Write the structure tokens for this entry.
Amino acid sequence: MSTVEINNLIKKYGSFEAVKGISFDINEGEIFGLIGPNGAGKTTTLRVVSTLLQINSGNIKILEYDLKTQPDKIRKIISYLPEDAGAYKTLTGRAYLKFIAKFFIEKNTNELINKGIEIADLGSRIDDKVDTYSKGMKRRLLVGRALMTKPKFAILDEPTSGLDVINAQEIRQIIKNFAQQGTTILLSSHNMLEVEYLCHRIALIDNGIIIEKGKPKDLMIKYKSNNIEEVFTKVVK
Ligand code: ATP
């Protein structure tokens, strides 16, 4: 069963069409990657799917809900990690997670907070203020925030951007584990190694149009390429 169904999505900014009628499905527990050059329409698509931007045309279904008519229902089952997300600088990491947890449930937030702390894995620094964190530490805290609710569907815009090799690997493993436990994931990335390692299927988007779609292995065969970076350079001219 598909968790997400996107049909002929069009999103305009004023008269400019940033996304020009894209369609794809994501199955339960699948990690689906959106890749493409700068300005291709990846973030726009993720923001639309997250209910933050309104659709101009097309349909999006997430589980049994329609995005246009039931955005409130959808907000309860999804989690969105923006590309440029920030956390409240004057709070400690722990206080930030607590603050966010209260949006989801009023009482007994400890389980959620502990899950966030476990994912962020910042050791004793979780009790330091966010403005003392490095870029990577902030990103880990935000990944913890995005996944602590064990969402049915997580939308992750460049989840490992700014992370060093080891931290990025750990976050990828966490994303994989969530998918194995049934979370459906839509992510964008400029890191083709990451995409190859993580994604069951990918869509290559350019100028607001999906120009290729499929399993990384199948695309490598189709384009006689050794890796997705080569596929990317052959498809995006
Ligand atoms: P990147 O890899 O650089 O993050 P992207 O694929 O995420 O790029 P988007 O941010 O979705 O691309 O942008 C798609 C197009 O829409 C670009 O041409 C961009 O300039 C335009 N765009 C994005 N946000 C706005 C906005 N708020 N107002 C007007 N145009 C916008």
The pocket of adenosine-5'-triphosphate is lined by residues 13, 16, 18, 36, 38-44 (CB under 6 Å).
